[in-house]
UniProtKB/TrEMBL annotation:
Belongs to the ATP-dependent AMP-binding enzyme family. This is Acetoacetate--CoA ligase. It comes from Methyloraptor flagellatus. NCBIfam families: ac_ac_CoA_syn (TIGR01217), PRK03584.1 (NF002937). Residues 525-595 form the AMP-binding enzyme C-terminal domain. Residues 19-74 form the Acetyl-coenzyme A synthetase N-terminal domain. Residues 77-455 form the AMP-dependent synthetase/ligase domain. Its EC number is 6.2.1.16.
């Protein structure tokens, strides 16, 4: 980041001694800023003369409208015998792939996909683990100027069809099965229910993982094994089709818990530039670094992770449970391979704390410079735990953004101190503010997280939304010409950011807005509580807070524990946060990416139908909340 600031000073004859100065310039002069990001990060392609057209319109601004580039060409910068990818699947599989081997596989896949009729604008979909073949398939698709979309193999039949059925992929990739928590889970029956209802997929390719690919492919129409798909083709230099900056690269999906998922289309150039900025500047990723993120192909952090190849880093892939075969498995991996960036979720950090795992006492971890956390707000105690029990001299970066922008609004900043409970600040080029209900920017108060100026990774649009009405309604209906993200947030006097939860899950007892994250931060400090979920229940003409808690084995929710929970919330948050009802439940529903889903529980409690239970990893948990007598009084 200092080198980038020096380049910006040379470019503009201005001085940027602080991050606030550098950030202000990146907002004030977006054309010069993004042009410098392109050149500083060494983007391969034809930039064109125009950097930003219609730069005041949201939506409507166009970055690099004359540019031509290819995403895969920017990631496959090397073809030597050094390591490009390391892969582990629990304790079942361990593999390595060199840059030369990755290029060779991408080349063969590219030829096979082209022979299957895939070209610019076609869609290819995958239901795959976080494995090297998934990276190679995506790169081959991108090399042709086509569009990639993915989910993890634990998605149910309806969940897959609700996503891929909307985008009509020409080719569909899947594995024969996968491992999770030591269990071998076959995909044959699921695939038979998917392929028949995905007629657009003229070719179905089965990737081996459990050794059953041939048998699975033989039982499916239009199916072939990966080996069979590649057999006619020998490796040769990868050819790259350069496409416009806004050519669709990825189709990602909203969680889908309130209906059929929205298909969010992200462009080639915007995704690449935003990720390069975040990796090289904010995460300080350097050539030869080893970048890890615990993710699946159903979460946008996978898309974020793989772009680290463009920074000349090695990808460290893991698939399976982060606690199998033992709670230390990811730290064993980190020590063995020398991770430099360790990316995970706030929930994982909290679970380590609950399990009493202290990697600092058992592992070296000397190579790790940055630990990132996302998925949900990292509680203050999570910050404490990382520095006390994992590594005292690490840069801990809580980050937040999402599927909507395939990147971050607020994230780590190497120049700034880490402050307990705060995200360090907004990303370069991101005009992030918090607004009150009447559209005024506020500091030290809670409000809506907004972005007031265009940025490169705004979606190209939604799939099957020809006039853009659904896209505009999703982000620009609340405030005219301003992106409203749907996060309930607060900018602190020091310039940091606290995310208090999703706006649509905000609690409103007595008309006062309370973020669910504020409750969880207090409740989950109590040793007997594993995790919690809070909703607002319409009751007696108002809204009351109902708190559901999942307790440790053998613990009962008696009056003493209820009082302890209420006291913790009252003293740690405020009397307004104290729930009217506290109920114990055996499970808490969550999405495929591991986020708890307050909205689905709120619908169940109010007797409404949850529109898309297939979006949940554990839909059976919803039955625990149906018709509860305790909520009738």
């Amino acid at each position: 980041m200092r080198a980038f600031a020096d380049a910006a000073e040379a470019e503009t004859s201005e001085r940027f001694p602080t991050y606030a100065d550098l950030h202000a310039w990146s907002i004030r002069d977006p054309a010069t800023f993004w042009d410098l990001v392109w050149r500083f990060c060494g983007v391969i392609g034809e930039k064109g003369d125009t950097i930003l057209a219609d730069g005041t319109k949201m939506p409507g601004a166009r970055f690099f409208p004359e540019a031509r580039l290819n995403f895969a060409e920017n990631l496959l910068r090397r073809a030597d015998d050094t390591t490009a990818i390391v892969f582990r699947s629990e304790d079942k599989i361990e593999r390595r792939m060199t840059w030369a081997e990755l290029n060779a596989l991408v080349s063969r896949l590219q030829q096979a996909l082209a022979a299957a009729g895939v070209g610019v604008g076609d869609r290819v979909a995958g239901m795959l683990p976080n494995m090297p073949e998934a990276v190679a398939i995506m790169l081959a698709v991108a090399s042709l100027g086509a569009t990639w979309s993915s989910c993890s193999p634990d998605f149910g039949i309806r969940g897959v069809l609700d996503r891929f059925g909307q985008i009509a992929p020409k080719v569909f990739f899947s594995v024969d099965g996968y491992w999770y928590a030591g269990k071998r889970i076959a995909n044959a029956d699921k695939l038979s229910g998917i392929v028949g209802d995905l007629p657009s997929a003229e070719t179905v390719v089965i990737v081996p993982f459990l050794g059953e690919a041939e048998a699975v492919a033989a039982a499916l129409p239009r199916a072939v094994t990966l080996d069979g798909f590649l057999a006619p083709y020998a490796a040769q230099p990868v050819a790259y089709t350069r496409v416009p900056f806004d050519q669709p690269l990825y189709i990602l999906y909203s969680s889908g818990t309130t209906g059929v998922p929205k298909c969010i289309v992200h462009g080639v150039g915007g995704t690449l530039l935003q990720h390069l900025k975040e990796h090289k500047l904010h995460a300080d990723v350097r050539p030869g670094d080893k970048v890890f993120y615990f993710t699946t192909l159903g979460w946008m952090m996978w898309n974020w992770l793989v772009t680290a190849l463009a920074a000349d880093a090695t990808l460290m892939l893991y698939d399976g449970s982060p606690f199998a075969p033992k709670p230390s498995v990811l730290f064993d991996y980190a020590d063995a391979e020398g991770f430099t960036l360790f990316g995970t979720s706030a929930k994982y950090i909290d679970q380590l704390k609950k399990e009493g795992v202290r990697p600092r006492d058992t592992h070296n971890l000397s190579t790790i410079r940055l630990i990132t956390s996302t998925g949900s707000p990292l509680a203050p105690e999570g910050f404490d735990f990382v520095y006390e029990a994992i590594k005292p001299d690490v840069h801990l970066a809580s980050i937040s953004g999402g599927t909507d922008i395939v990147s971050c609004f607020v994230l780590g900043i190497p120049w700034l101190p880490v402050r307990r409970s705060e995200i360090q600040g907004p990303g370069l080029g991101m005009a992030v503010e918090v607004w009150s209900d009447d559209g005024k920017p506020v500091i030290g108060e809670k409000g809506e997280l907004v972005c007031t100026r265009p940025f490169t990774s705004m979606p190209v649009g939604f799939w099957n939304d020809p006039d853009g009405a659904r896209y505009r309604a999703a982000y620009f209906e609340r405030f005219d010409n301003v992106w409203c993200h749907g996060d309930f947030a607060e900018i602190t006097p020091s310039g940091g950011m606290i995310i208090h939860g999703r706006s649509d899950a905000t609690l409103n007892p007595g008309g006062v807005r309370i973020g669910t994250a504020e409750l969880y931060a207090q409740v989950e400090q109590i040793p007997q509580v594993v995790e919690a979920l809070a909703i607002g229940q319409d009751f007696d003409g108002d809204v009351r807070i109902v708190l559901f808690v999942r307790l440790r084995a053998g613990v009962e929710l008696d009056d003493g524990l209820k009082q302890k929970i209420r006291t913790q919330i009252r003293t740690g948050a405020s009397p307004r946060h104290v729930p009217a009802k506290i109920l114990a439940v055996a499970d808490i529903p969550r999405t495929k990416s591991g986020k708890i889903t307050e909205l689905a529980v709120r619908d169940i409690v109010h007797g409404r139908t949850v529109k898309n239970v297939e979006a949940l990893a554990n839909p059976e948990a919803l039955d625990l909340y149906r018709g509860l007598d305790e909520l009738r009084s």
